[in-house]
Amino acid sequence: MKFSVERAILLKALAHTQSVVEKRNTIPILANVLLDAREGGLKLTATDMEIAIVEEVPGVQVSRPGRTTAPAATLYEIVRKLPDGATIELDHKGGDAPLALRAGRFQTSLSVLPVEDYPAMTEGALPHGFRLEAARLRGLIDRTRFAISTEETRYYLNGIYLHAAEVEGRKVLRAAATDGHRLARVEEDLPEGAGGMPGVIVPRKTVAELRKLAEETRDEIEVRLSETKISFRIGSVVLTSKLIDGTFPDYERVIPKANDKVMEVDTKGFAQAVDRVAAISSERSRPVKLSLGKDYLELTANSAEAGNAREELDGDLVRYDATPLEIGFQARYLADITGQVGETLVFRFSDGSAPTVVQDKADDGALYVLMPMRV
User: Fold this and answer.
1) Where are the alpha helices (DSSP H) in 47-169?
2) DSSP, residue by residue, 200-251
3) Start and end of every DNA polymerase III beta sliding clamp central domain (predicted)?
């Protein structure tokens, strides 16, 4: 195998593939990227056996077709540190000979592992498919992924639940995530072809890799899935992932329907006030107490080590016309939501100990539920 390619082109492709590779694993071949040079160009493959990424790399001059593997992280670091504009030549003579890399006056050789040992994560049949604009997919991810659970014992919460639903005769594609303390539910108009899709749980790592790839395009992303796997085609990249084998809880049951105490608050002013009062404590789980009166909000936080902090928001930023109320929330949870909504936040309360609904006034498609903390 022998080919040459411009540094920037190879670097971008290696950045995609090497991020899938687990830094620590007990199977050496999984630390490698598979390089497949053919007359049509170069194809890179990386997998951790849960996710696989395959990328067709343009602008490659192949002088001798062939296949080999190379340590993904090492190859990426070498290419990253080469000067801009460099032309890289990769040459592998076959067998267990090292992979030679040359760029200008720099040269190195990398150990390879047998191509035959490289695992194939075959897609299988993916009968359901639809296309979704990259911006819409980014929106679904950004407004839900912060609520994904990191508790491994509740593995079925370690991803985003993606499914079709119907709301008052309108068909929607929903993304939902929860860690038991908060819920994020976001919906978009159902894309053509998604009506018969099964409800699937997309793993947290897959969501992170997909979000990075979706940032690089404005085009539509092709989604194909079965009950066990899902794939995303983003330009010349195909990301394939196993799905979480579990049942996502019936999240609709935890969404309050009768919360009648409504507060509207300026998102920016509220977010800044939360950030300031929460700074009194280094504990990320420290609650911020909200004390509500007519068109008035007081935020307070206390720390046994540092003291206390207090800030008031009045009628210029707050609209509230129900009975006075005190309720506490984890500051980080409030910050996660305020980072994803528009100019005005709408809180719907029942009392100080019941779940609270939070919405973006300008976006009916996003809904959040927060469990209060004792303050």
Assistant:
1) 72-81, 134-142
2) EEEEHHHHHHHHHHHTT--SEEEEEE-SSEEEEEETTEEEEEEPP-S----G
3) 132-250
Q: Is 314 exposed, middle or buried (0-12, 13-18, 19+ CB in 10 A)?
A: exposed
Is the distance from CB of 314 to CB of 361 less than 8 angstroms? Answer: no
| 356 within 8 A of 372, measured Cβ to Cβ | yes
Quote the pLDDT of residue 284.
Answer: 62
What is the C-alpha separation between 332 and 339, in angstroms, rounded? 11
With beta carbons less than 8 A apart as the criterion, state whether 74 and 23 touch. no
Q: Report pLDDT digits (tens) over 151-202.
A: 999 999 999 999 999 988 899 999 999 999 999 999 999 999 999 999 999 9
Rounded CA separation 295/313 (Å) = 8
- At 286, which amino acid appears? R
In contact, 108 and 39? CB cutoff 8 Å: no
Q: Which residues neighbour 310 within 8 Å (Cβ) at sequence distance 6 or greater?
A: 277, 298, 299, 300
pLDDT band at 370 (very low <50, low <70, confident <90, very high): very high
HEC string of 309-358? EEEEECCCCEEECCCCEEEEEEHHHHHHHHCCCCCEEEEEECCCCCCEEE
pTM for this one?
Answer: 0.93
pLDDT at residue 314 in the model: 87
Please give the angle made by the CA atoms of 25, 213 and 127, to the nearest 5 degrees: 85
CB 227 within 8 Å of CB 137: no
- The span from the CA of 133 to the CA of 6, in Å, is 30
Report residue 157 as tokens. 């919460």
